Structures are given as structure tokens and as C-alpha cells.
User: What shape does this take?
Amino acid sequence: MCSPGPFAFLAHEEKTGDPSGALTPDEPRSRSYTLQDRQRPATLYRACIAYQVLHMQETITTQQFSFLPPPEAEISMQPLAERYMAAPFSVLDARQGWWRERKAEWLRLGIKSEAGRDGQLLFSTAAQPPEVYSAKNAYEKRIGHKVTWPEFTQANPGVVQQPGTSIFDPVLCELAYRWFSPRDGLVLDPFAGGSVRGIVAACTGRRYAGTDLRAEQIEANRAQWVGIGRPGMPAPRWVTGDGRDIAKHFPGEQADLVFSCPPYADLERYSNDSADLSTMRYPDFLRAYRAIIKEAVAMLRNDRFAAWVVGDVRDNKGLYRGLVGDTIAAFRDAGAYLYNEAILITAGGSLAIRAGRQFEMSRKLGKTHQQALVFIKGDPKRATAACGPVR
Assistant: This one.
């Protein structure tokens, strides 16, 4: 009989030095693994444990495991990262080498999510790696006076490495699609913004429908797709419009995944349009934000997931507003409930330089993460079945 706890064999091994756990020498051979009688009982034991964990059973006898019909009973011994592209843990590290390489592959397709945005409206171009600061200091010394970052960028366009806009990570996007949506399913995005989410959806065989207020952004996205799209790929549908009216823009559609990254209140200002959430005071932002989430969840099929990438922001007193909690509450009130949460660790860039002064003056910690929230509308098991295998 397998141990009641899936990790009990580790305690047994540590205590006795015997890696075989509770198995006796006369256990039958496994049909899924080649075992010499009595010589490798630990392998069968670990396979039994794996089956137990995957199928959420408290106990299972090795006899039961041995005679389960293949191929359903086959336990893949591949590493989790190979089976699911990344280990499905609650910490996702975008600094890892494989992640950066995968991101570079996506960008080589020609994705330019910053196209269609006025970079000076958004994140300061001063958030640069140390070598860029050195180049700016050298330039100022050469011309004999200080310059602003826009002046330096204009005079040295090839030096600045960090654009003045926030770019959505295509690897995170790919993970969300492969883990939480079916191939050929419809992805609904009420804050479409740049081109990344639409292009990655199409390249992974998903249909995509998204809205954005700015016509210039929509045109830039469509222009990118012309250069990237291939025959047989479902063309993303980007529409100029307010996310509060997304059902009017895609009448009769039912989504298999709601996936987006909203404005982080007024952290980034995307336009001067009064309907743009990034221009609103937080109470007004929250009302509009909740309305958009309600509309999107209403268009989501039952027994499906929604994935949302968000981070908290500070008010003008330096206090966190609670945007993550407000997001969870908005989804719950719309009929979708928090099911998974993950921390996305992002590259620090110049954070090491900026954080010291910030911490010295205010004891604020340098922020290098976002939250990836997954919600469920309906039954999680049926939603998982609807997604099918990870691919």
C-alpha cells in the first residue's frame, strides 16, 4: 500500500536509509516500468506516488497501479518544465535564461508592441541599465552641460536600451494560452493595447478579439500582423472602442479565455481621452474598471478560466492603493472566483541603482514583480477538461 502522504517515503528514507518506502519484497512488477523482482521497489513506489498525486487519491495499492490499463496509467517522467513549457509553480521567473531566449525568439518575429504609443507619456526613459547612465554622463561632459533624458535620447537614439513604454511579455502570454485555454478557442481582451497578446494567440492557434480606445494603436497592431501572419493562422481582431462596450463590438461571441493586462490606475498615462482609465482619479477608475470586468466575464463561457496580469500601485502619499485586491473583488462580483495566483518576477533593469536612494529616503522596497491571477467561472475540472492537453 502506498503511504497516505505523497512525501512520506522521504521521511522513511531519511530515518532508515531505505529508499523503498513501505513496499515489501514480494510486490508485483509494474506494467509501466521494467522491474527486476525485489531489486528496484523504490521505482515502483515513486510511480505509485506520482499516480496518487496526479489523481488526488489518498491511497492506492501497488497492485492497483500495476494493472491499470495503458496508456492512461503511463506516468510521464519528463521534467515538469518539458511537459508544460515551464514548471507550473506559483513563482514565474522571467529572468531565467530559457525565458529570455524564448522572449527573444518571439520578438524576432517582428513584434513591436510599443508601436502606436507615445513613449514619453509612459514610463520614464531614465529607467536604464548602468552603461546607459555612463553614456549620458560622458555625453554631458563632452558638450559641457546637463541634458534631459529626451534630449539625450534624441541625440543618441542607439544608446537607450529600455523603451519608454511597458511591453507585455510574450512568454507569459504563451504560458497563459497553453495552460488555460483550448487550441482554437477564443481569447477576449478588453485592454488590448499593444500587439503581443493578439499575435501570440494567433501563433498558438487561438482566435483573438480585443478592444482599445486609441485608433493609432489598433492600426499599428494590424500593420504588424500583416508582416507576421501566415496562411492558416487565425487573424487577430483588434477593434477601436471602449472595453465597457466590448459585447457590442463582438456581438454573440463567447470567449474560452478572458486574458488582459489593465492600466495600473494612473501609473502609465496612455492618452488624453477622458474615457481612458489611466486619466481617471482612482474612485472613477475603479468604477469603470469593475464595469469592464463585468462585461468581459459575462462573455466568458461557463467552465472556463480568466487570466489577469496586474500589480499594485501607490497613491500620491506613497501608500499602496490595493489594486490587486480590488481586482479580485471585481471578478468575484462578476461571477468568477480566484483559483490560482502567481508571482511574476521581472528583470530589475536599473532597479539596483534606483532602489538604494528610494530605500534610504523612504524605506520603500524596489518592486520587481507583478501578480498573475487566474479566475474560474464555473467548475474547475470541467474547465480543465475543456482546455485539453497543454500544447
Observations:
- Residues 30 and 66 are 4 Å apart (CA to CA).
- Confidence is low (pLDDT under 50) at residues 1-45, 62-75, 119-127.
- The chain has three domains: 8-77, 91-116+166-387, 128-155.
